[in-house]
């Protein structure tokens, strides 16, 4: 039996379904190998329906990969934290625990390695939102360096644990990882960095 194509039932459901399908496909195969046909099939729409919302694949990918609000939430959680390193690690790992956020960030990070638009989006997330907030929490000497070091640790953790699923790291609980990694982040933010 053939599924009906074209507009999905219900007001306003087609565009979100297309964006979610785009993130799913990009997370699996990357931007270059993501086809409009596969995206349409996953969204359960006719490929022509995509063009009612997006003029091109680039426009679709840009809309689908727009950084989620979770980056702003993590950054906001750092502002008043007594232990910003702990708050940063916990915030990032907790965000990854949400399946929708995981798919979104996985698609963005994977795409960033081969697509300049995605790379720029990811840079914006970390330099403007996360690193900017961490700089405010860091000691004033070398604040930008301290923030970048902290972000590199957390991004590396997310890459190895969430995207590459390196064992045993992939199965360590969020709580345990926070206990292990937070002291390192705290040192980056306020401890001695050496000469």
How would you describe this structure in keywords?
10 helices, elongated, 195 residues, single chain, mainly alpha
Give the radius of gyration: 19 Å
* Total DSSP E strands: 0
H/E topology pattern? HHHHHHHHHH
Largest sheet: none
Pick out the low-confidence regions.
Answer: 3-11
Tell me what portion of residues adopts beta-strand conformation: under 5%
> Kindly, what is the distance between the CA atoms of the first and last residues, rounded to a whole number of angstroms?
70 Å
Class by alpha and beta content: mainly alpha
Helix content: over 70%
Short description, anyone?
This protein has 195 residues and is an all-alpha fold. The chain is 71% helix and 0% strand.
Structure characterization notes:
With 195 residues, the protein is mostly helical. Helix 7 packs across helix 8 and helix 8 packs across helix 9. The longest helix has 22 residues.
How is the topology of this model organized?
Blueprint: H1 14-29, H2 36-43, H3 47-53, H4 57-65, H5 70-79, H6 84-97, H7 99-112, H8 116-137, H9 143-163, H10 174-190
Helix pairs in contact: 1-2, 1-4, 1-7, 2-3, 5-6, 5-8, 6-9, 6-10, 7-8, 8-9, 9-10
